[in-house]
Amino acid sequence: MPTNLPPEARAKWAKTLEARTPEEKLRALQEFLSSIPEHKGTSKLRAHVKHQIAVLRRLIAEQKARKRGGGPTFSIEKEGAAQVVLLGFTNSGRSSLLRSLTNAKPEVSDKPFTTERPVPGMMRYEDLQFQIVEAPALRGLERDSQTLSLARNADALIIVVDLAEDPVAQLSAIVGELKDAGIMVLRPRATVEVERQSSGGIKVVVIGRLIDCSEQDVAKLIASYGLRHALVKVMGEASLDDVEDYLLRRPVYKPTLIVANKIDLPGALDKLKKLQEAVAGKLTVIPASAKSGVDVNGLGRSLFQALDIIRVYTKEPGAPPSKEPLVVKRGSTVLDVAEKLHSRLSRNFKYAKVWSNRLPFSPQRVGPSFVLEDGDIVEIKA
């Protein structure tokens, strides 16, 4: 449903963009929330704003604690090819899963809410390492502000459901909570980017198509929220409601896998089948057991595919290829790799040599727009 915010609410939303400190942002969001009318069309927005307010309150409290010399941070610095956050309800088996996948030694207990802070570990898949982070158990949107911020910052998510309970209900509740926090587990039909600028008015660029609206309608909507100068990029198929949702909530898509834990319990196979039917192939479901563990290679392969990444091996003239791959998004070009290695390489790029089994001969001399694939070897000349 459309949000249909009144002019007063739109004006207060614009003030949230002007806030410079967490305290100013918190006050502006509280005023914005109070101005949002309560109806079905604003339910997602109200839930998202409440989540933002809870995150800011936690952030301000952490900052005050650090100034006093205490209070450990909740964030985890990213390492490896990607950061993957384990989400689930208490006693779903997240700690046992982390132990079986990585070198981490989290406390495993039947006691509810044993994990109070994020616990990271490294999982090896072929010549890559994924950082797996166990997040504290979910227990309600406003209480979960830090966990959901951790999920929003991650590269991918693993939702752990318990086959001793109702896995379909668990998945529905977790996906709903993520959605309220502006986190999508299914790839959206469109993405929208709104970039504030200092001049030039409102420019709309559409890579795809707009549904039942025009570029002028989009520009008018953006202007109604107090933005005078902005670059709006619409990719895919988007309606005016989609554009407004992205403007207000800034939803993000996170590649997501489901681990169905405790597959060894009586009746678990029937529950697994119901879960797979509910998912209908839209998400990958991986069965696991706290006793026998999980197929690490299978999980790693599924993560690699879900993240839509490739491995590229660089080499110097006369030297063997690097043993550690450079991880880039699928569809990356030789110039993208040069930029990732060093901006000077991309600025002074001349050509590259590529070794690949898919080429009729190797090495092959290529230009900057050559699209790489997993396993390619690249030597850049600059």
Structural class, from secondary structure content? Answer: alpha/beta
How many helices? The count is 12
Number of strands: 16
Distance between the termini: 53 Å
Run of helices and strands: HHHEHEEHEHEEEHEHEEHEHEEHHEEE
Mean pLDDT: 88
Radius of gyration: 23 Å
Helix content: 25-40%
Uncertain runs with pLDDT below 50, 5 residues or more? none
Would you mind describing this structure in some detail?
With 382 residues, the protein is an alpha/beta fold. 36% of the residues lie in helices and 24% in strands. The protein has a six-stranded mixed beta sheet, with helices on both faces. A five-stranded mixed beta sheet has the order 13-12-16-14-15. Strand 10, helix 9 and strand 11 form a beta-alpha-beta unit. The longest helix is centred in the first third of the chain and has 25 residues. The N and C termini lie far apart (53 Å).
Offer a few descriptive terms:
about 375 residues; six-stranded mixed sheet; single chain; alpha/beta
Brief summary of the model shown:
With 382 residues, the protein is α/β, with parallel strands linked by helices.
Secondary structure topology:
Blueprint: H1 7-18, H2 22-35, H3 43-67, E1 82-88, H4 94-101, E2 119-125, E3 128-134, H5 145-153, E4 156-162, H6 167-180, E5 183-184, E6 190-196, E7 202-211, H7 215-224, E8 230-239, H8 240-249, E9 252-253, E10 256-261, H9 268-279, E11 284-287, H10 296-307, E12 309-314, E13 326-329, H11 334-341, H12 343-347, E14 351-355, E15 364-366, E16 377-381
Parallel strand pairs: 1-3, 1-4, 4-10, 5-9, 7-8, 10-11, 12-16
Antiparallel strand pairs: 2-3, 6-8, 12-13, 14-15, 14-16
